[in-house]
Amino acid sequence: MNHTHRLRRLGGSLLTLALGLALHTGASAQDTAAIRKNLAERLPNFPAIEEISKTPMPGLFEVRVNGTDLLYTDAEGNFLIQGMLIDTKARVNLTEERTDKLTAIAYKDLPFKDAFTIVKGNGKRKLAVFEDPNCGYCKKFERDLAKIDNVTVHVFLYPILSKDSADKSKAIWCAKDKAKAFTDWMVKDVPPPAANCDTAAVDRNVEFGKKNRINGTPTMIFVDGTRVPGAIPPEQIDKRLSEAKQPG
Known about the structure:
Elements: H1 3-9, H2 29-42, E1 49-54, E2 61-65, E3 69-73, E4 80-81, E5 86-87, E6 92-93, H3 94-103, E7 116-120, E8 125-131, H4 136-145, E9 151-157, H5 163-174, H6 178-188, H7 200-211, E10 219-222, E11 227-229, H8 234-243
Parallel strand pairs: 8-9
Antiparallel strand pairs: 1-2, 2-3, 3-4, 5-6, 7-9, 8-10, 10-11
C-alpha cells in the first residue's frame, strides 16, 4: 500500500503540535538543505525527495515523494509525519486538496484515440471515464448513465481486476460497434463476441492509468480536470457535468 492510500485512510485524523516541532516562518534554502540531508542520512531507504515546500502550519514542511505522496516534517527533518493536514478554521483538508491538484489530468491531454464514445442527446457536455468490464461499480455507473442526457462519454477500457478483464476489454475493443458491445455487457450482461484486432490501445490505457495513479474503477474525469474515483449518484454526475468548465 503506497503513502497516498495510507494518507486517505487517515482522512479523519489531525496533525498535532505534540511532536515538539519548532516554529519557523519560511522555507529557506537552509531549511530545505537540512531536511534533505538529515532524511537521507537517517532513512537510507527513503524515496527520492522531489519537492519540499512550506505549509500554512508554522514550522511544518511538506515533503513530496513518488510523484504525489505527501509527508510532513520539521525544519531539520527530526520528525516525519504521515497523515492529513487539516485547516480547522477553514474546515479544509489541505492534504487532500493538494493531492487532488497533483493528480489532476488535463482533459485535453487524455489519449482519446484509445477510447470510444457513447453519445446521449445533443452530446454537448463531456465526460471521460476509465472502466473495467468486471467492475460492479462500473456496471452501476453505466446503468445510472441511462438517467443522464446530453452528454458525450469517452470510455477508456481499463482492465486492472483480472486477466478476464483484459480478455473482455480486448473483445469489446475489437467489436464492430464498441459502444454497443460495451453497453450490452455492462447493462444487460451479454458477453462481448470473440474478435481479433490490434488491442494495443487497451495496453496503453493501462500504462496511462498507472502513470497517472488511476487506482480504481470507475474513475471519471470532467472537462475542468476534476477526477472523481468511484461511482457517484447520477444527480451528482449531472450537476458536475453542468458546472464543469473547460480551461480556456
